[in-house]
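ugh ok fine here u go
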Amino acid sequence: MTTLHDYIGENEKKLEEESKREAELHNELLEQIQRKQKQDVNFTGFDGKLSELVDGIRTIPNYNNLKGYIREKILPEHPNINYKKLSVIAGLHQGVALVIMYDLYNDKLEAEFNDLEDPSLDYHYQD
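structure:
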């Protein structure tokens, strides 16, 4: 016969095992994200002055057209492209390709957050 003490002890063990599994999964996901997000940024003209690079590139007259072209034509064909390959395919300086990829990534994140905050979407969670 199971006592209340045994029942509580079993539940504590299950909770402890679950929390260990969640922590392991969390750490594994963080490692995957960190591996994917790292870009080797080293090219002529870049001396670690990222803010100046980004501001200067965004002032290029056809910057928005380039960004749209890359978003619509190149990324669907090459979804996992890095900035070095993008610069070759699009015929851009590596710095321009890097900033465009950075902006497109941020645009995508912003769109996803806006979708989450959209009150017209009605989510129902079931237990």
